[in-house]
Structures are given as structure tokens and as C-alpha cells.
């Protein structure tokens, strides 16, 4: 099974941290990309941010100005969801909420061709559950990028119970053609990475809650002794506590309250206070 042809348009729904990054990756690979967000102006702001980041890479000689111009010409704002109707692949990266995601996909089913692949960047929600009720659940797949999407190589290609094999294969080959390192996974809550890594982070949060050590010490330990690129506190500050807390709750519920995945009250406090991490200037650490 081959990757999607470069002539195929890619629709990206949600222009937050992940959607903007995924749109950049697809545009860099030569696809024409339509980026849609239901928050007015959000997609345009996201493209401006991508532009700033790419310009920095020109200064650091990672790209030429011509390459950046070509990438940016591939990136377009979709003012309405209807503008992604010509896409061969739609990647959804909106809020981690089953109902909201299902509503968007049912709207997409009404406008896209039955051959279009529907992919969700969900971190934790069952692909089988998300596709339930769709007219064509067999063309639905998880395409789980990691943050920041233009830099992180790993992509989990997640098959639900009824995902067609060729759909997963095309998604896998497309991720590879985009310079990523895809892996296949069956749809289980948290897939592979969030399942394996989450208990490490949960334990760090418990240690912090019990005042055993401070965030910097615990992060350093996870990095140096555990071999992770980031510790729990710096990583969740990067992910965004609203997003991470929602993912933890979803994994916890999906495993019927398994203690290993129990959400942290410390993190809930941060969400309640609006201390969402880097994006708001403060989380476990201050970024002001
Ligand atoms: P975000 O909050 O930064 O962005 C979400 C965007 O979706 C917002 O701009 C919002 O306006 C938009 N949106 C919400 N509802 C919408 C709708 N109905 N239609 C169109 N746009 C809508 O979130 P994020 O961090 O980019 O995460 C998005 C998804 O990616 C979530 O499912 C999350 O679990 C997953 N994910 C996040 C990370 C991470 O590190 N942040 C990593 C991997 C996967």
C-alpha cells in the first residue's frame, strides 16, 4: 500500500498546538493543506506562528527562504468546515472530548467523499468508540502525533475494531513519507506511549504531592535515571494541563478506575486556576 499522493489535499481540523504542527508537517511534505478551527481567526494565527518558526529555521540555515515560501504557499486557512471537502485525508486535532469529536466527524461525513481517510490525533480515546455511529467507520484511524509535531518522529497509527487494513497501511506509509517513524497499534486506552509513560508521570505527581522532592529534582531524575527526554512537570507544562488532565481522566475511566492511571488533584488545581503551562505562562514552572 502506497502513501497518499502529494496531489491529495490534507484537511486539518483544530489549529491549536497539535493541529498547527501537523498542518506544517503535511505542508512540508508537499501537500496542499486546509487548516480549520471553529474559533474565529485561530487558523490564521496558527499559520502566522508556523511562519515565524520557519523563518527562525531559515536564520539557522535549516531551510532556505525559497523552501519556506513553498511550504507557506501550501498552507491555507479553511474559513468553513466545507472547505476541507476535497481532502483525501482529514486529521482531527480538536479538544479531547468524545462528543465534540464525533459531531465534527459526522459533519465531515456529510461533505467528504467516502474514500477520504478520517484520522484522529486523539491521545487516549478509543478509535472504535469514536467511529461508532459513522456511516463508514472502516475508513477511520488514529494518527497520533507527539508534541511538537514537526520535531517528534513517532506517530502511532491506531486501528479500531473495524478499521480497514489498507486504511491503516496508507496512513502508516503517509506518515513515513512525511519523515515520521510510524508504528501500528491496536486501539486500547492510551495506545502504547500514553499507556507506558503515564504511570511514570503519575508517580512523579504523587511524589510531588507528598512533598518528597521538588519538580526540578523529580524532572532531573526522570531524565537522567529514566532516560526520558523530559520529566513529568516540564512535559505536562508543554502539553498543556487542560489537555493532559482530560487525557488522564479519559485513560482512567477507560480502565475502570485503575489506580495506575488515577488523575492528580495537583494537576486539577492547575487547570482550575488557569495555570495551563507554557501556553499561559505558568504551570508547575513559570515562563514569564
Ligand atoms: P489545543 O487546545 O491547543 O487546540 C485545540 C484546538 O481545537 C483549539 O484551537 C480549538 O479552538 C479547536 N477546536 C475545538 N473544538 C473544535 C471544533 N468543534 N471544530 C474545530 N476546531 C475546534 O489542543 P492540542 O494540544 O492541539 O490537542 C488537540 C488534540 O491532540 C487532543 O485530542 C489531544 O489529546 C491531542 N494531542 C495533544 C498533544 C499535546 O501534547 N498537546 C499530543 C498528542 C495529541
Automatic annotation (TrEMBL):
Residues 10-185 form the 3-hydroxyacyl-CoA dehydrogenase NAD binding domain. The keyword Transcription regulation does not apply. Residues 190-287 form the 3-hydroxyacyl-CoA dehydrogenase C-terminal domain. Keywords: Oxidoreductase. The keyword Transmembrane helix does not apply. This is 3-hydroxyacyl-CoA dehydrogenase PaaH. The chain holds residues 1 to 288 of 508 of the full protein.
Amino acid at each position: 500500500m502506497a502513501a497518499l499522493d502529494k496531489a491529495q489535499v490534507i484537511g486539518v481540523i483544530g489549529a491549536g498546538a497539535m493541529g498547527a504542527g501537523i498542518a506544517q508537517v503535511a505542508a512540508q511534505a508537499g501537500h496542499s493543506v486546509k487548516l480549520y478551527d471553529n474559533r474565529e481567526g485561530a487558523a490564521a494565527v496558527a499559520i502566522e506562528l508556523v511562519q515565524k518558526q520557519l523563518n527562525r529555521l531559515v536564520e539557522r540555515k535549516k531551510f532556505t527562504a525559497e523552501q519556506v515560501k513553498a511550504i507557506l504557499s501550501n498552507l491555507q486557512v479553511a474559513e468553513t468546515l466545507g472547505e476541507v471537502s476535497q481532502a483525501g485525508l482529514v486529521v482531527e486535532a480538536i479538544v479531547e472530548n468524545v462528543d465534540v469529536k464525533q459531531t465534527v466527524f459526522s459533519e465531515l461525513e456529510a461533505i467528504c467523499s467516502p474514500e477520504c481517510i478520517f484520522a484522529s490525533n486523539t491521545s487516549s480515546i478509543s478509535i472504535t468508540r469514536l467511529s461508532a455511529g459513522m456511516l463508514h467507520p472502516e475508513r477511520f484511524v488514529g494518527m497520533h502525533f507527539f508534541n511538537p509535531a514537526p520535531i517528534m518522529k513517532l506517530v502511532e497509527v491506531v486501528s479500531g475494531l473495524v478499521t480497514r487494513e489498507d486504511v491503516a497501511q496508507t496512513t502508516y506509509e503517509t506518515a513515513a513519507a512525511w519523515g515520521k517513524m510510524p508504528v501500528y497499534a491496536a486501539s486500547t486506552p492510551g495506545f502504547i506511549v500514553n499507556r507506558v509513560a503515564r504511570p511514570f508521570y503519575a508517580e512523579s505527581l504523587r511524589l510531588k504531592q507528598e512533598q518528597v522532592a521538588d519538580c526540578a529534582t523529580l524532572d532531573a531524575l526522570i531524565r537522567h535515571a529514566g532516560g526520558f527526554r523530559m520529566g513529568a512537570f516540564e512535559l505536562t507544562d508543554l502539553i498543556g494541563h487542560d489537555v493532559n488532565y482530560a487525557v488522564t481522566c479519559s485513560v482512567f475511566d477507560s480502565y475502570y478506575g485503575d489506580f495506575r492511571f488515577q488523575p492528580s488533584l495537583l494537576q486539577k488545581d492547575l487547570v482550575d486556576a488557569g495555570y495551563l503551562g507554557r501556553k499561559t505562562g505558568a504551570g508547575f514552572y513559570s515562563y514569564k
